[in-house]
């Protein structure tokens, strides 16, 4: 039984860029790829997963978050790519978690004479619970980072647009009056009252 | 080593780790260079090294060292926040040969405390459970630290949202006041103007 490996990486994907990751997987291993876009633009990215023969196992365009589980049908190097090629000027921050294989049991059942003791089964259930706590925590952290990024974007946008609007309002109103005045100033010579 | 990716020879690749304070981060890497003649990545290229730079959220550089083609680096975070780990090869080849690239294998572990497997192999039952329990306690401490950090971030998030809310309200009031006062000024100004021009 091979040990499970999990790699999670958060990286910045510049606009028009594509970043690929490779991993060698043995046949029959159950793997999970999970990714989420944390900051940038519409918070979406293209993702594509290929097996050693080049067959596309998973392909989604403009996804914000997804999770994909598959079992490796053959030995070899699997490749998954994230693409921001559809975006012209926004950088995206992408998080992904690639889990290869399942965790080996805490208390392996070879060489065992008796069933798990209470202590051991308590350990196993705490371990499982903690794993799911850490998993939820990661999800929550990413969602919160995404929400905070949107809130900060919104805040800056509101500030700039409001200031811009106020300035435009002032400039246009004052400009209107002077423009109107200038119309009447030109006609001064022709509108002097005759016979007053 | 597990996951790998490719970069250009002179390119710098960075990854981001958003971690609470007092967290140990350990990274294993291996770098290989593409050989044009053999059309494969060399197992070890002589003189090839890797600059590893770690920047803390305040911009301070925590770690900046040149390692060999394969190595382990680690650092402990003082502040909570986004730490940026950057990799750049020490390749000094100015003429970038077409098709030359580097393969970087990477494995980064955050806050994990490694189980001492040899202690677990000990036949003593009590000792084994003891070790597992200690590992679980460490994991719980890490979860708690993450939660504390999460609380601070959520507070910042809430403050930003409330600031946006009050900004919208305040600017709407300011704009309405500008609108009204400029409107009044416009009418007054035009009226005075027409009176002075003897048109009214």
TrEMBL record, chain A:
Query: Which Pfam families has this protein been placed in?
Result: EMP24_GP25L
Give the family this protein belongs to, as stated in its UniProt record: Belongs to the EMP24/GP25L family.
Q: What is this protein called?
A: Transmembrane emp24 domain-containing protein 7
Give the record's keywords alphabetically.
Answer: Cytoplasmic vesicle, Endoplasmic reticulum, Glycoprotein, Golgi apparatus, Membrane, Protein transport, Signal, Transmembrane, Transmembrane helix, Transport
Residue stretches making up the GOLD domain: 18-100
SUPFAM superfamilies the record matches: Supernatant protein factor (SPF), C-terminal domain
Whether Secreted counts among this entry's keywords is no
> What membrane topology does this protein have?
Single-pass type I membrane protein
Q: Which organism is it from?
A: Chaetops frenatus
**Keyword Glycoprotein on entry:** yes
UniProtKB/TrEMBL annotation, chain B:
- One GO term of the cellular component aspect? endoplasmic reticulum membrane
Major localisation: endoplasmic reticulum
Q: What residues does the GOLD domain cover? A: 12-110
What residue ranges are annotated as transmembrane? 168-187
Give the source's domain of life in one word: Eukaryota
* Keywords attached to this entry: Endoplasmic reticulum, Membrane, Signal, Transmembrane, Transmembrane helix
Pfam entry (one)? EMP24_GP25L
Q: What membrane topology term does the record carry? A: Single-pass type I membrane protein
Concerning InterPro entries, the annotation shows: Emp24-like, GOLD_dom
Q: Where in the cell is it found?
A: Endoplasmic reticulum membrane; Membrane
- Which PANTHER family does the record cross-reference, listed alphabetically? TRANSMEMBRANE EMP24 DOMAIN-CONTAINING PROTEIN
Protein family according to the UniProt entry: Belongs to the EMP24/GP25L family.
Q: What is this protein called?
A: TMD11 protein
